[in-house]
Structure formats: structure tokens, C-alpha cells
Specification:
The protein is mostly helical. The chain contains eight helices and three strands, in the order αααβααββααα. It starts with a helix and ends in a 13-residue tail after the last helix.
Length: 193
Amino acid sequence: RPLLCRWLTIWLRTRKAFKVDSTSSQDAAHLLGNREASVDTCTSKEGRKLIMLGREWLFSMLPHCLKKVNRVQYGVMNDADADRLKRQGAPVSSTRMQLAVPFVGKDRPSATSEFSHPEVLIGLTILAYAHTGLRPNDVRQTVYKMREHMNRETIGNFRHRPSWRLFQRWLNASQVWLRKAGLSGPAAAALHL
């Protein structure tokens, strides 16, 4: 937990949660790691909210999420899961396909249950994608959304638009990863958004 407190301190400093130069790193870590410590004297109103959220994540949400087993107690449904549920007559909304859902057993998503706590839902969704990766349709939808966003940007030539530059960074990073992993295959073609 001390390492997570230090990381959270760094993030809180980028959000200017602490009053200028009033809190040392050690004091900030103490504020985060001690549920009883007062945050009134060294933070702004927004900073107090962020610290309280950070404490909640460190002491409650994160341990709860990390205790769960992906594809046994939670997970993101794949196409086979959705087809199986549709054959059983269960509704499969696009939301259920994108967010983590409770599982009733190994590779068996619940037919209709969903996580009710938003922070737990976000945490488990992030963990599920970290474990299973993005599905081909997720990547396709992301690229389409990025293209729509780029078309709304008005910065002249498309090569100067932030969306196009972000996509190029993704392509370059994927090529580096493939080389490091020793995987070969066709180079990703430049996608003209």
C-alpha cells in the first residue's frame, strides 16, 4: 500500500490537490495512508474530494476488485458468450458487451446481472480488459470514433490533427511491441482517417 500511496500522491500533485508547497511527499503519503488523518489544513475543497476518493480506492475498491478472478467472478463478454446468452433468451445490450459483468462460474457470464457500484464496475472493467485485451470489434469501434472525432477537428491538413497524430503514435507503439515480442506479420498500413 505505501507504493500505491506514493503513486496516488504524484497523481494528486498533478491535479493540484494540495496547497502550494504546504505538503511534503511524506505528509501527503500519510494523508492518503491514514484514514483518520485530517485533510482540511493542506488541501483545497476539490483536493479534499480527490483525497477522499483516493483513500476509498486504496482501502476499499482496489482490494475488492483485486480479490476477484477474471472470467470466473467477473469479465467482459466475448461473442461466444453473447451468442450463448441470446440462444437462452437473455437480452444482450451493447453496454453489457463493453463493461465487466458478474460471472456465475468459469467462462459463464450471468444472464442479466450487472455490477451496481460504479467504481467497482470501472475497476473490474479495466482489469478485465487488462487480462483479455481489446477484442477486434473494440479496436474497430475505437478507430471509427477516432475518425469521426478527427473529421470534426478543424486544424487544416489531417496530418496536423491531434486524432491523426494519436493514431500514428498507436501504430508506432504496436510495431515496437511486435518487434520486441518477436512476432512477425504484415506492417500495419497507415489508416487514412
